Amino acid sequence: MFSKSLISSVALCLGLALQASAHAIITPTLGVSGTAVRADVQCPSAASECRTINIPQNIDSLQAAIANQAGIFNVTITNFNGGVNGSCQIASALVDPTGTGNFASAQSATMILNGDLAPTVVGYQPLTVQLPAGLECAGGASADKCLVSFTTAGSFGNCVVVQQSA
Ligand SMILES: *[C@@H]1O[C@H](CO)[C@@H](O)[C@H](O)[C@H]1NC(C)=O
Ligand SMILES: *[C@@H]1O[C@H](CO)[C@@H](O)[C@H](O)[C@H]1NC(C)=O
After folding, report:
1. What is the model's pLDDT at position 16?
2. What are the percentages of helix, strand and coil residues in the chain, rounded to 5?
3. Domain 22-164 part of CATH 3.40.50
């Protein structure tokens, strides 16, 4: 039952994304320079967490979110609708330490500060996230970047590059 509802919400997200009407995005967004807009939402799925984004071309192209010594980093979620469709609550944050988009052995990050399940207004909310303990990011030219695939409670989302501090 759970997986059935998950599949249908992913299908809903894909349908909405094709109509460029997806509802929430986490920034900094992999592959998106400047202000992220609704059409940049990627609707992660288990088969394709970062969807249409070319990872090798984009992992080093923009400012990453910077994790501190404890693996904690801040990102921002912007919602384009209210309600659960525009949810600012992260339901899943999967970490690919290779930075290649291979989430087969991904571990979950911990949400220290999460957003509202059903926001009443559109705008943005801060999110604070912690990488799994002991995890080492090895992606990108500097070999210290991870990819994190965020999915909201409304099943929207995208990938974010996170760089570990030295
Ligand atoms: C995250 O944001 C909070 C609030 O602005 C700040 O106190 C904290 O230092 C930030 N953490 C990191 C790792 O940047
Ligand atoms: C979510 O969005 C879809 C498509 O716009 C709409 O049909 C549905 O009613 C919305 N659900 C909620 C809870 O707002």
Report:
1. 54
2. 15, 35, 50
3. no
Closest ligand relative to 119 C-alpha: 2
Question: What's the CA dihedral at 122, 161, 94, 115 to 10 degrees?
Answer: -20
Distance CA 19, CA 51 (A): 16
Å from CA of 156 to ligand 1 middle: 24
The ranges of the chain with pLDDT < 70 are 1-21, 166
* Residue 116 alpha carbon to ligand 1 centre in Å: 19
Residue spans of the domains in the chain: they are 22-164
Identify the pLDDT of residue 151: 95
pLDDT, residue 20, reads 47
Ligand 1 contacts CB of residue 122 (under 6 A) = no
| Residue of 128, 162, 165 with the most ligand 1 atoms within 8 Å of its CB, for mutation | 128
At 147, phi and psi to the nearest 5? -105, 135
Residue 10: per-residue pLDDT: 60
Q: Which atom of ligand 1 is nearest to the CA of 126?
A: 2
